[in-house]
Amino acid sequence: MSDLEVIRADPYNAETPERALSHATTPEPNAYVRTNFGVPSLRAEHVIEIGGAVNNPFTLAVSELAAMPQRTIVATMECAGNDRLGMHPLPTGEPWQHGALSTIEWSGVSLADVLARAGVHDNAVEILVTAADSGQRDDAVGEVRFARGLPVADAMRRETLLATMMNGAPLSPHHGAPVRLAVPGWYGMASVKWVTRIDAITQPFTGYFQRQRYVYELPSGVVPVDRMRVKSIVTSPSDGARVGRNITVRGWAWSGNGPITRVELAVDGGDSWQSTTLGKAVSAYAWTPWHVQIELPRKGRFVLRSRATDATGASQPDTVEWNRLGYGNNAVRHIAIDADML
Q1: Range of the domain at 61
Q2: pTM
Q3: Cβ–Cβ under 8 Å, residues 29 and 36
Q4: How confident is the model at residue 3 (pLDDT cuts 50, 70, 90)?
């Protein structure tokens, strides 16, 4: 994992380096890693138990997944805590900068196919996916296991996968081998790694990682984190770059709530935003490329800001509503560049 920016060694958490964010899909050695506990040791013939509010509980060996119809999706995945260091005052949690973000080609079996075999009851409201990793937490009693509930409608989308492959190769242990969930459009906590059990449940899940972590603690109440908020980044030029007078600014924009419809760029302060040209995303769930050519008026330092809007009309705010755990920071980011016009 030496190609990552390590922010914590144990449990291992590391960011995608800035240079790798220019790729349309993130190479596996550069894909960010988020772990809450240690990486569990699972047998090659790992078995998933499927049960709860279903007609036909059964067990499913990972080897059986290979014999089922396969599906591949390309999806952008962002950790809910990405850009936590950009919030003030600094919230609690892993000190993520900007690199808890990757775009990956996932391959595997539609979770809907597995649930169809089980026969989910009509009164089920969520699909609870439980991981093999567990450990102690300072604010919980006893051992806590990672688990998340996903609304039935999202679990039944054909694009929600039990993934066994990443960028055309088998999953590595840090990325959830031998099988993980891949939930396009949602923050990364929904894509449970090291899946060991899947249950249909008739009441919303209230476990630790659904009610005490991965939640927005707001004055109006506690709300579980779900879909990725609209966001954009500049990938070229890089922060701190020295540039000429005429430059092309490039970047990505994404949202878990629909296609990107507009990206704007501002140079220095104020509200003078100019439109950029949108490229074509490689899939409905992958980030959208954008670019714009600009001419800088003088030598010196300039600040670039990008602002994305999605199909719902949501745009990036200048500042995001602060929350104690530091999730969902999609505020407009800025980078500084230095113009050397000889």
Answers
A1: 5-224
A2: 0.96
A3: no
A4: confident
